[in-house]
């Protein structure tokens, strides 16, 4: 069921490899393996029409859900229900890898528009001004509201 040649994208400094597409699941869900080299943070945001589930494979993630912070270690998961503000971060300098499941598969379409394809051999780095603008412009079209507080003033470090 996995893509024979999975596409890879970059969004908010995180490399996202599509393992299962919405097309393969009748748009019920999409599945990504995400990698962060460290010092990454997603915008604080709310999804109106989809949920996300995160499962940490390697490293640690910090999740802020409805204002509450939680550290996720390998083997731990978190369900991010639509309508609840959340943010994912890898504030340290250690790599982290995690699975992201979007239900239904709206996130996949958002990523194709808000992110960009990762070129072969390229390593995801901090988002550029153009990356932030593309993400900000695409979010409302996919029922995602970006809340204030991202990017951090003058720095991507937390």
Report on this model:
With 158 residues, the chain is mainly beta. The protein has helices at residues 106-114, 129-138; strands at 8-11, 14-20, 30-36, 40-41, 45-47, 51-58, 61-65, 68-72, 77-80, 86-90, 96-103, 116-117, 144-146. The chain is globular, with a radius of gyration of 14 Å.
Topology:
Layout: E1 8-11, E2 14-20, E3 30-36, E4 40-41, E5 45-47, E6 51-58, E7 61-65, E8 68-72, E9 77-80, E10 86-90, E11 96-103, H1 106-114, E12 116-117, H2 129-138, E13 144-146
Antiparallel strand pairs: 1-2, 1-12, 2-3, 3-11, 4-10, 5-13, 6-9, 6-11, 7-8, 7-10
Keywords:
158 residues, seven-stranded antiparallel sheet, 2 helices, globular, disordered C terminus
Distance between the termini: 38 Å
Mean pLDDT score: 91
Number of helices, counting only DSSP H or I runs of 4 residues or more: 2
Q: Could you estimate the helical fraction of the residues in percent? A: 10-25%
**Strand/helix succession:** EEEEEEEEEEEHEHE
Gross morphology: globular
Largest sheet: 7 strands, antiparallel
Report Rg. Answer: 14 Å
The assigned structural class equals mainly beta
Please outline what is shown here.
This protein is 12% helix and 40% strand. The protein has helices spanning 106-114, 129-138; strands spanning 8-11, 14-20, 30-36, 40-41, 45-47, 51-58, 61-65, 68-72, 77-80, 86-90, 96-103, 116-117, 144-146.
